[in-house]
Sequence to fold (97 residues):
Amino acid sequence: MANPQRMCIVCRGRFEQEHLYRFVVKEGEVFPFKNLETFHVSVGRSFYLCSGCIVSGHLEKRVAHVAKLSKERAKSEREKIVKYCNANTKGVEKADG
Fold:
């Protein structure tokens, strides 16, 4: 069976799920997705990022849109996302195109 493909919210490139960072939005905050037991509820909104888009100038805007956050809130959440991704490298570059 082939590995599931998921789409990065910034570049819209498709990658194998294991090569992307997954985040979940809970009560207006963005958290790295670990597993369902972390939140004790079903996941509402989640999204994926490729390693090439962590430093993208569009990251903040896309997070605000996908997570339904204000621009100010997305800016602070972006900092958390970048910090997490830098500490947990995946090793897949941004898709061409």
Observations:
- The mean pLDDT is 84.
